[in-house]
Amino acid sequence: MPVPDIPCTANIAAVKLDLLKMDLNNLNGFSNSTSINSGSVNLPSSFHSVLLDLKQMDKRDLHAFMKKVLYTVANALDIERVSIWFFDEGRTSIYCDYLYLKKFGEYVNETTLSVTDFPEYFKAIETSLFIAAEDARNDKSTKELSEKYLEPRGIHSMLDIPIYYNNEIIGIICHEEQDKIRKWKREEIDFTAAISTLISTSLEIDFSRNKEKDFLENRRFLSTLISNLPGYVYRVVKEGDVWSIQYISDGVYDLTGHKPDELVKNKVLYYAMMVNETDKAAGKEIISKALAEKKPYQINYRISTAGGNIKWVWEQGRGVYNENNELIATEGFITDITDKKIFEEEILRKNNELSALYHFSRTLSKLNEPGILLEDIGNMLVKFFDRENVYIALYDENNSLITYPYFYQNRKLENISPRPFGTDFTEFIIKSRKSLIINENLKESLKGLDINILDFEAKSLIAAPIITGDKVLGVIVIQDYREENSFTAGQLDFFNNSKRSGSDSIRKCVFI
Fold first, then answer.
1. What's 511's DSSP letter?
2. Which of 348, 313, 318 is nearest to 331 (CA)?
3. DSSP conformational letter for 274
4. How far apart, in whole angstroms, are the C-alpha atoms of residue 393 and residue 421?
5. Domain limits of the chain?
6. 323 to each of 56, 234, 291, 292, 332, how far by Cα in Å?
7. How far, in Å, CA of 219 to CA of 226, rounded?
8. Distances in whole angstroms, Cα of residue 56 to Cα of each of 27, 49, 83
């Protein structure tokens, strides 16, 4: 049912409840006397019975109720045409929603009346408590309807009562007499005013019911939408200088392994999930700047799940501000982008490998002096792997010596003296003639291979022998001092490709 937003004339809106000078809530207390007096209103008992029946009628089906009203009023007043009209949203016209023809017992359609075509009539609707036009074709309020509306329908008399909603006129209930002029009695006017009030009440009930239904449906829809999101939504409120987690959706469990209640009750745990200090600093800066400028923010960062796994997440949010433009909350959405990050890193790694191999090949093709060649190779490996230790060790089989033409340690090159061939890790690679990657439990692994581990600081390493023909020229080793699981199988492949390309050049430059 359309309910226009345009307010009616103020003095008319103020008297909505005064249209009916009787209290419908007291109808149940009236007796079935010949007439009923309530203040200045006198209604025949037949009208009282009609009002009571309609008041007690089930109004859950608004359309059925409206049709029942038209049928009942037409028979109670013994009048041919009874209709209900509503303003459109712009209040530029009024359209007929229901019309009952008593003679035929039918509900039919009717035309639309424009405000611009009948300005006096609409002015009367807006400024009068009712329009009781006995001679409608000559009444000042309705005569402009004659040619286009009254005469074609044989209408001589009209009684229009405004219908109110929230103290605004939203339409009329119209009673039309055909074939004769009818003098409207006071009790008929009061009766139809009471009918108008019943209609208004039914509209309010229907609107409230639909509003509640829409609210429940919107809440259900929002709940379904949130539950289907690949992540979780949140609301964090600001109380003074303290931030508190007000809401986290259930999707947080799938992403983090923590239940919403855990994180709502323990904000320390919530913020502790962001494990990387660099991420924290960058995220704080981006969010603070966005909130100060009242703009949305987007950040990527790493979290540690309840199971100890590291995941990348993407967060988008924005500030919520009160009527004084003060920040009172932040709301946003967080989703897992780990797979996306892995894919991006894999693409970047492949590009870096191709670039490194290209430069590696160009360097080898120049056949530089031995020291320059080895330094170029070492520098490219440092740039590609970005680890704390990269070294190239050469094996002088004739003199049983290990030399270090390139030794990069803790971000700088160092001079390492030659040493006798022994039982260290370098010698193990030379003897085994195999590449090796160790990502965890490094010391235990080396100890199990009977390798001297006194000088080992690394958490993980990757190593490969430099071989040409059946001769081992030396070893290339890269070590990570900070993290386990630092190297991948793809890096080992790149490492092997690099040392294959370099072996022959190293042999020619160094040993020939």
1. I
2. 318
3. B
4. 11
5. 10-210, 230-336, 342-511
6. 45, 22, 16, 16, 20
7. 10
8. 10, 11, 22
CATH number for the domain formed by residue range(s) 10-210: 3.30.450.40
For residue 477, count other CB atoms closer than 10 A to its CB: 21
CB 246 within 8 A of CB 265: no
| Residues facing 245 on adjacent strands | 236
Q: Do 10-210 and 230-336 agree at the fold level?
A: yes
Residue in 257, 230, 234, 258 with CA at minimum distance from that of residue 245: 234
Length of the chain: 512
CB proximity list for 418: less than 8 A, separation 6 or greater:
396, 401, 402, 403, 404
Residue bearing the bigger pLDDT, 16 or 485: 485
| CB burial of residue 445 (10 Å; 0-12, 13-18, 19+) | middle
CATH number of 342-511: 3.30.450.40
Tell me how far apart the 2 most distant CA atoms of the chain are, in Å: 135
Token representation of residue 368: 């530089």
Amino acid at 206: D
Amino acid 175: pLDDT: 96
User: 356 near 380, Cβ under 8 Å?
Assistant: yes
Which sign, positive or negative, has the C-alpha torsion 463, 469, 470, 471? negative
Q: Is residue 203 a contact partner of residue 165, using CB atoms and an 8 Å limit?
A: yes
How far apart CA 465 and CA 275 sit, in angstroms, is 37
The whole-angstrom separation of Cα 507 and Cα 466 is 9
Tell me the per-residue pLDDT of 236-294, one tens digit each, with 9 for 90 and over: 888 888 888 888 888 889 898 988 888 888 877 777 777 778 888 888 899 999 999 99
Q: What is the β-pairing status of strands 81-87 and 93-101?
A: antiparallel
Tokens in use for 370?
């031995």
